Amino acid sequence: MKKQYIIPIFIPYTGDEGKYTIDTQNLDNSKKEMITKEDLQKIIEEQLNIVKDEKDICIEVSFIGGNFTALDIETQKDFLEVIYKYVEEKKIDSIKISTTPNYINKDVLKLLKKYKVQTIELEIQSANDYILKKSNRQYNFKQVKKASKLIRLYGFKLAHQMIIGLPESTRIDEINTAKALIKLKPKIVRIETILVIKGTELEKEYNEKIYQPLTVTQAVEIIKELIQMFKLKKIDVIRSGLQNEDAILDLKDDASKIIAGPYHPAFEQLVESAMWYDAIVYKIKKLNVKVKEVEVTVNSVDSDNVIGYKKENIEKLKLLYDVDLIVKSDENLKQGKSQIVITKTYTDFLE
After folding, report:
1. Average pLDDT over residues 215-222
2. Which of 68, 129, 221, 308 would disulfide-bridge 273, Cβ 3.0–4.6 Å?
C-alpha cells in the first residue's frame, strides 16, 4: 500500500468564516494574503523535490483552511491549471479542496471534475441549525445534505468536517451530528475541537463566562466515541484535534494565541491511547478471574499509543486494576490490529 504524502496549500477564507475561528493558519496574520499561482507552483516544486527519491508514495495537493469554491472563478481555474499540469505528468496523484455547502453547485462540480479534483471536504460543524446559526455559519443542514448528495453524484470522494465543543453544543448534539453525517455516506470524516483564540468573539464570551470550553479529557472522551461510530460504518477518521503548528503554542506560553480549550500537543495520541486502553480493559473484564498481567502485540506503529502518552495506560492499568501491561511488536500485524492475551492471573500464584 502506498504511503500518502500531502502537499498542504493554505488559503485564507474569502467569505464569512464565522465567529469561532479554529483554523491554525488564520492565527498567523502573515498568512492572510491570498497566494498567487506562482506561489503555488513554487510550493509544489519545493515539495516534489523533497520526495523525489521516495518510492511507493501517493502525492496529494490539498487546499486547507480556506473556502476554495468561494474564490472567484478565474482564481480557481488558475490554481487548478497549475496543479493539473503535474497530474498529467503523473507527478501528482490527486487534488483535494475544502469548502462550505453553500458554495457547491453543478457548475462548480463540473469545473472541479474537469481538472481531476478527487476529494471535496465539506465544512459541516454541526447538524443542528440553531448551533450553526449561533456560530454565524451561512448555511443550514439542508444545504449540507444537498451538497453532499451532489458531490457523491458527480463521483467525488466526499469528506466531512465536524466540530465538537461549539457554544451550546452538547454531547448529544455531537452524537446526533455523527449519526446525520453517517447517513450522507462520506468516505472520510475530520473531527476538530474548538479553541478560544485571541481576538475572536469567543474570547469575549469566554471572559464573560458565557462560554465554557471542553477540557482535554472531555474532548478525548467524546471524540473516542465518535470515532467508534464512524469506524463501525467503515468511515475513515483522518485527524482529530488541531495539529501542532508554529501558530499554535502551548497555553502556558505568553506568546500563545490560544486562550483556553482542549489543546494538547499530543492530542491525537491521547485519543488513540484511550481507545487502546478501553480495548484492553474490555478484554480483562470479560474474564471471570483476577488478571495479573496482559500482553498486547501490535504493529510497531501502534506501540506508543498502546503504552499511552507518558506511559499513561501502563500506569492506569496498574493503579486501577493492579494489572501489568506488556507491549510487543509484530510487523506482520496490520496497523490498528492487535492480539491481546492474558498471560498471568492471580489464580496462577495459588496453584
Report:
1. 96
2. 308
